[in-house]
Specification:
The protein has about 650 residues and is α/β, with parallel strands linked by helices. It folds into two domains: about 85-380, Aconitase, domain 3 (2-Layer Sandwich); about 385-610, Aconitase, domain 3 (2-Layer Sandwich). It has a five-stranded parallel beta sheet with strand order 6-5-4-9-10, with helices on both faces. Strands 14-13-12-15 form a four-stranded parallel beta sheet, with helices on both faces. Strands 21-20-22-23 form a four-stranded parallel beta sheet, covered by helices on one side. The protein is globular and about 85 Å long. It starts with 9 loop residues before the first strand and ends in a 16-residue tail after the last helix. Keywords: 4Fe-4S, Iron, Iron-sulfur, Lyase, Metal-binding, RNA-binding, Tricarboxylic acid cycle. Monomer. Pathway: Carbohydrate metabolism; tricarboxylic acid cycle. This is Aconitate hydratase.
Length: about 650
């Protein structure tokens, strides 16, 4: 479909030796859409989408004009049709959609038609990340054992998806053991500026042209929002909406209110992006942003990496927004280069964003927003969130006091210091003991600064003779193989191993409740004695019962703090003043003794997080390991259903 181009804004953009068709926002402003240069960047992406898809049926001229009217009112009850560039799925919610496509092929064949005509009309990537469970942990064999167990339990599903990848065009499957869909999206799939070939007539010339436009997507997982940190507009939708988008149908949505979140200053020494996102989540929950876009702006953005921004964007579902958007800037280009994107793509992103007024600099005027919040990054302090809501941020010194309060108010029990025996073990358990400590989730494992921070803290702790308390189930499940590579190359994985954080898999694991069972005797002691046990994880949700049925108090924390609480073994200590443990020299060890400096962390990031490892790990991303290659599937236009399948 060629846009009607009512605002005569279709132009040619030359990047090096290549030429692209694009729909110019500055030209549209000159031709009648007054004031749109001050729109929020996220709204400019929506506007470009409408200009490019104007057909007088799903997208009318009045819909485009409504965006300009939004500028005056900053809120407008007007429905538009949004066409995302692509669709992202994970295996838990994505398999039913692929089953529907396969069933449509069966129906087409039964009607005497060509089944091979049934395909997604926009690119679809399905990342298998929801199936790995932490059944094994605590040693170097845990990863291999968990992978073996995963394939045993999911053989039929994986065979079906392998068939689907061969049978459907416009459909790719990222195999199990690769990573978490949102981190793989950030590191590899997303392009910031998308291109596709399209037949159209420009002037007197009819032919196939390459069109450039902002990358955008919807996904079958709520944390699809993470990629907004790379200036890619996207959010999670239901399965039916995702299938509609796959088949080329637009998604109906109201023009959103856009909440501007102004960031100034810089994070202080010892403060992480996790502390920042927990602060932002608390503030936005209080503001009320459900159904709204949030867009971040201000000088503070110059002090945040794309990984930091993506951590904030990831938790949009927790602060209630449709998305948390960051515009293209110099950091975006740097990340695209570091993560191994082609130099031609990076050049296109820069030139396109600048031509469209989508490139933010320190001199860019602030956009116009519906309402604005402000935060000085220097005001952020080390924090956790818990014991049962992501917005329940608590400063590190107040965690133990907060747990004491929760024992009375939430759990109706006294924190009496009583310890209970554990059958066959030489330790006992009490209220507040940490029984799960998990470095998990794309929220934080996509951020090298906090992963390397955790590794350096582990190195310092191991040097003093500390290791995780014996009742803690520890795990490290990165969101991509890139993380494992830079941890191994830097030697930090060995240090994490020493304190108990061995690699257990590449996938969502504990963050989605795939923490696996606790050791039977620990579970029995907890349930027999009514112990309010705790979990500390670097995830994004901590609702009671989500992480483990045996754990009532769940805390979200940065990876370094996850390691620290594993060493301490309890949330009843105030880690800002109390010793974490006793060193091999018999002296108390405090958190300040083992916490790495920002300078140390940055030096490791610069040395070990390189484009070489991104290119290496994503070179054969769709190939899969030997387990997947052993799975046989039939090359056929329709799936051969197993009628005895349960």
């Amino acid at each position: 479909m060629t846009s009607l181009d009512s605002f005569k804004c279709r132009k040619i953009l030359k990047v090096g030796s290549k030429s692209y068709v694009y729909y110019s926002l500055p030209t549209a402003e000159k031709n009648g859409l007054k004031g749109i240069s001050r729109l929020p960047y996220s709204m400019k992406v929506l506007l470009e989408n409408l200009l490019r898809n104007e057909d007088d049926r799903t997208v009318k001229k009045a819909d485009i004009q409504a965006v300009a009217k939004w500028m005056r009112k900053k809120a407008l009850e007007h429905e538009i049709a949004f066409r995302p560039a692509r669709v992202l799925m994970q295996d838990f919610t994505g398999v039913p959609a692929v089953v529907d496509l396969a069933a449509m092929r069966n129906a087409m064949q039964a009607l005497g038609g060509n089944a091979e005509k049934i395909n997604p009309l926009v690119p679809v990537d399905l990342v298998i990340d929801h199936s790995v469970i932490v059944n094994f942990f605590g040693d170097n064999k845990a990863f291999g054992k968990n992978v073996t167990e995963e394939y045993k339990q999911n053989q039929e599903r994986y065979e079906f998806l392998k068939w689907g990848q061969k049978a459907f065009s416009n459909f790719s499957v990222v195999p199990p053991g690769t990573g978490i869909c949102h981190q793989v999206n950030l590191e590899y799939l997303a392009q910031t500026v998308w291109t596709r070939k399209q037949k159209m007539t420009i002037g007197r010339k009819t032919g196939t042209f390459e069109v450039a436009y902002p990358d955008s997507l919807v996904g079958t997982d709520s944390h699809t929002t993470m990629v907004n940190g790379l200036a890619v507009l996207g959010w999670g939708v239901g399965g039916i909406e995702a299938e509609a988008a796959m088949l080329g149908q637009p998604l109906s949505m109201l023009l959103p209110e856009v909440v501007g979140f102004k960031l100034s200053g810089a994070l202080k020494e010892g403060v992480t992006a996790t502390d920042l996102v927990l602060t932002v989540t608390q503030m936005l929950r209080k503001q009320g942003v459900v159904g709204k876009f949030v867009e971040f702006f201000g000088p503070g953005l110059d002090h945040l990496s794309v990984a930091d921004k993506s951590t904030i964007a990831n938790m949009a579902p927790e602060y209630g927004a449709t998305c948390g958007f960051f515009p293209v800037d110099a950091e975006t280009l740097g990340y695209l280069k570091t993560s191994g994107r082609a130099s031609a793509r990076v050049a296109l992103v820069e030139k396109y964003a600048k031509a469209q007024g989508l490139f933010r600099t320190a001199k860019s005027p602030d956009p116009v927003f519906t309402v604005t919040l402000k935060l000085d990054l220097a005001d952020v302090v080390p924090s956790l969130a818990g014991p049962k809501r992501p917005e329940g941020r608590v400063a590190l010194p107040a965690v133990s006091e907060g747990f004491t309060t929760a024992m009375d108010a939430e759990y109706k029990k006294a924190l009496d210091g009583v310890r209970y025996s554990v059958d066959g073990r030489n330790f006992d358990l009490g209220h507040g003991d940490v029984v799960i400590a998990a470095i998990t989730s794309c929220t934080n494992t996509s951020n090298p600064s906090v992963l390397i921070g955790a590794g350096l803290l582990a190195r310092n702790a191991a040097a003093k003779g500390l290791k995780a308390a014996p009742w803690v189930k520890t795990s490290l499940a990165p969101g991509s193989q890139v993380v494992a590579e830079y941890l191994a190359n830097s030697g930090l994985q060995k240090d994490l191993d020493k304190v108990g954080f061995n690699l257990v898999g590449f996938g969502c694991t504990t963050c989605i409740g795939n923490s696996g069972p606790l050791p039977e005797e620990i579970s029995k002691s907890i349930n027999d004695n009514g112990i309010v046990a705790a979990a500390v994880l670097s995830g994004n949700r901590n609702f009671e019962g989500r992480v483990s049925p045996d754990v009532q108090a769940n805390y979200l924390a940065s990876p370094p703090l996850v390691v620290a609480y594993a060493l301490a073994g309890t949330v009843t200590k105030n880690l800002s003043v109390d010793p974490i443990g006793t060193g091999k020299d018999g002296k108390p060890v405090y958190l300040k003794d083992i916490w790495p400096t920002t300078k140390e962390i940055n030096a490791f990031v610069k040395k070990y997080v390189t484009s070489t490892i991104f290119k290496k790990k994503y070179a054969d991303v769709f190939k899969g390991d030997t387990n997947l290659r052993k799975i046989k599937t039939v090359d056929s236009e329709t799936y051969k259903w197993n009628m005895s399948s349960t």
